[in-house]
Amino acid sequence: MSPNYMRSFSEGCLRPPTVIGQFHTLFFGSVRMFFLGVLGFAVYGNEALHFSCDPEKREVNLFCYNQFRPITPQVFWALQLVIVLVPGAFFHLYAACKSIKQEDILQKSFYTGFYIFSVFLRIVLEAVAFWLQIQLFGFKVNAIYMCDVGALEKNFNITRCMVPEHFEKTIFLIAMYTFTVITVVLCVAEIFEISCRRLGFLK
C-alpha cells in the first residue's frame, strides 16, 4: 500500500466524517485505552500472585485461579477494543483504497450506508462484549471465591480462596461497563447525526 493510502487511512481513522465520530475516536482512543492500559494493569497486574487458596499447595492456587479467571479481564477488554475497531478500520481502509474524501462520505448514499453499517456493526460488537463481560465477570467481585477442587483433592471438593483488592476490581468492572454504554450511546448519536445531515437539519 502506498504512503498516500496509508495517510488517507490514518486520517480517516483519526478524523471520522462526523463530529460525534471524532469525539468517539477521542474518547475511545484516549480515555478508554488509557484507563485500561494504566489503571487496568495497576488493579489486575499482580492478581494471580496474590490470589490465595491453600498456601501450602501451589497447584491448588493455580487450579482455582484458572477456574476463577477463565480469561483475565485485561485480555478480554483488550480483545474487545481491537474487535470493536475492526468495522471502522475496514471502512476507512476501503475509503483510502477508493480515494474517497471524508467530506464525500456523507454526500453519496452508498458511502453513507456503508459507513452507517460499520457504526451499527460496532454497536452490535459492543453489545456482545457487554453480554460476555456479564457472563464472565458479573457486576461484583466478592472477597471470597469458593473453588471446586474435586478434580485435584479426594478429601474435599470445595476450598475458600481470597480474592485480592476485590473492591477496587468491582469499581473497575463498573467503569468498564460504563465505558461500553457510553460508546454505544455515541454510536447511536453518530447515526442520528448522519440522518440529520442527510435530511438537511444539520450542515
Automatic annotation (TrEMBL):
The chain crosses the membrane at residues 25-44, 75-97, 109-132, 171-192. The lineage of its organism: Eukaryota, Metazoa, Chordata, Craniata, Vertebrata. The keyword ATP-binding does not apply. GO terms for biological process: cell-cell signaling. It is found in: Cell membrane. It comes from the Eukaryota. One of its GO terms (molecular function) is gap junction channel activity. Keywords: Cell membrane, Membrane, Transmembrane, Transmembrane helix. Residues 125-194 form the Connexin cysteine-rich domain. It is a multi-pass membrane protein. GO terms for cellular component: connexin complex. This is Gap junction epsilon-1 protein.
